[in-house]
Write a structure and sequence with these properties.
CATH superfamily of the largest domain: Nucleotide-binding domain of ferredoxin-NADP reductase (FNR) module
Largest sheet: 6 strands, antiparallel
CATH architecture of the largest domain: 3-Layer(aba) Sandwich
Helix content: 25-40%
Distance between the termini: 56 Å
Structural class: alpha/beta
CATH topology of the largest domain: Rossmann fold
Radius of gyration: 27 Å
Strand order of the largest sheet: 13-12-15-10-11-14
Number of strands: 20
Number of helices: 14
Shape: globular
């Protein structure tokens, strides 16, 4: 019986994306069985897999880790308790397999003895000879270990695979992450509040598998909830593979408005006239938002509503791109007054410029100048979801702001097979849309996310309409 793997697990093992495997399935190069693929078929398609390699997906994981503000070197092993339980489960499976093999061996010995007792009957001698030859052939074979099977066993110790119901979304729990942290890093908008075990909004029901408490919580589950298998995602980790039933946010309107006092972690120059304002929220009071939304920042007597330029997968670290503007009081505060450690009050989130995660279409991102800020959040969210066949960024910018994060965009394009980056500094929106149409003959096959100044968004919207692009597939915001 072939060893079947989910697409998520298979993609990790061979170092590619789920989208790439889906393309191989559609082309007929990779057989699938109810959404699963056989390890043997994967090995035929990716013959270069080696046991000594670290899983094959480290390059993509490094890009994601950088984008989400989490350094690879800070990734931790699972706790000793969870690691020992995972090893115990695998040893239990191995023991069960050995017991099965022993029973089959006993059955074969009994069958061979029964054949010997009836060798005089017609055909029994031939049957005995056939059985002996088959057993000799099987026992004499020495097969090399299945590389994917061994790597899969290793990954099952280091990480747990989780499936959410009813959405059927999947994610992996790495290292010491809680279920909530792992789901957010995977780009999933699960329901939660304080993320600190106080509110109970992240309650979820365990359908199969086992969880373990790894962080304290004050919220008390009722006896009825415990009996039904409910747990808190923010305080528990997966012991092994898990299936849970959890609420997920379906729209920006589901996110409550919040007020948080954060502190400046850093103010860094991204270019001559763009600063990165990096805020960090308290551990027990994080901002819940969807990628692409905005927040109102208040520093002293000044305020500004700015798009969040980071991914919800790291909800404690909030990034904002602040353009130098001598006429804007908040901009002057960032460039001339504010420093690390200063408090800034955050209100929000606002807006519905969010990813249509369930859309099957590939995506074109179009940014004008600092309109790249909300686009960046959407791109990082799309990367974490790993569901779009193609992500293509067009960024129109000219001095003084320019393409202030061009190196980041190029690193995405270098590391990810399904990401392309096209910077533009000349022309205007008509030239940009013509470039898009030249690159992609059927623009109507895409979803387009558009962000920039009012004039940029209006001009690009009109140019797309002249190309016959469906208005329902365009999501736009002004910055």
């Amino acid at each position: 019986m072939p060893q079947l793997l989910s697409l998520s697990r298979a993609a990790r093992l061979v170092g590619t994306s789920r989208v790439a495997l889906q393309q191989q399935i559609r082309s007929g190069a990779l057989p699938s069985f109810d959404g699963m693929v056989a390890a043997e078929d994967l090995l035929r398609l990716y013959p270069g897999i080696r046991l000594e390699e670290d899983g094959g997906f480290e390059q993509v994981m490094q890009i994601k880790a950088h984008a989400f503000g989490k350094r690879v070197r800070e990734r931790m092993l699972p706790s000793q308790e969870i690691l020992s339980q995972r090893l115990f489960e695998q040893s239990t499976e191995l023991t069960d397999l050995r017991n099965h093999l022993q029973r089959y061996h006993t059955m074969m010995e009994a069958l061979r003895e029964r054949i010997r007792q009836h060798e005089a009957q017609p055909g029994m001698a031939d049957l005995g000879a056939f059985l002996d030859s088959q057993l000799a052939e099987i026992l004499g074979q020495t097969e090399a270990p299945n590389a994917l099977a061994v790597m899969d066993d290793m990954l099952r110790v280091m990480s747990a695979h989780v499936t959410l119901h009813p959405s059927r979304h999947e994610f992996f729990v790495e290292g010491a992450d809680t279920l909530l942290e792992a789901a957010l890093r995977a780009g999933l908008a699960v329901n939660y509040g304080c993320s600190n075990g106080n509110c109970g909004l992240c309650k979820a029901r365990v359908i199969s598998g086992q969880v373990q408490k790894v962080r304290p919580h004050d919220y008390v589950l009722s006896e009825a909830e415990k009996n039904q298998g409910y747990t808190l995602l923010c305080s528990h980790a997966a012991v092994g593979d898990l299936v849970i039933e959890a609420l997920e946010t379906s729209s920006a309107g589901d996110i409550p408005q919040q007020q948080i006092v954060a502190r400046i972690k850093a103010i860094e120059a991204l270019g001559d006239d763009v600063r990165l304002l990096h805020l960090q929220t308290p551990r027990n009071n994080r901002l819940r938002f969807l990628a692409g939304q905005s927040a109102t920042l208040v520093a002293g007597e000044t305020s500004a509503q700015l798009p969040i330029a980071s991914c919800p997968c790291d909800d404690r670290n909030l990034h904002f791109h602040v353009v130098r503007d001598a006429k804007d009081d908040f901009s002057r505060q960032v460039y001339e007054v504010l420093a690390a450690g200063d408090p800034i009050t955050v209100f929000g989130p606002w807006g519905d410029f969010v990813l249509r995660a369930e859309s099957p279409r590939p995506i074109l991102f179009v940014a004008g100048e600092a309109g790249f800020a909300p686009i960046k959040g959407l791109i990082e969210h799309a990367m974490s979801l790993d569901s779009a066949e193609l992500l293509h960024l067009y960024w129109h910018a000219s001095p003084p702001t320019g393409h202030y994060l061009a190196n980041l965009c190029r690193s995405w394009a270098d590391a990810l097979d399904n990401f392309r980056y096209t910077p533009m500094a000349e022309g205007w929106v008509n030239d940009l849309v013509e470039c898009m149409a030249k690159d992609h003959a059927d623009l109507g096959a895409f979803d387009i996310y558009l962000a920039g100044s009012g004039a940029f968004v209006e001009g690009a919207t009109n140019a797309l309409a002249q190309q016959g692009f469906p208005a329902a597939q365009l999501v736009a915001t002004t910055t």
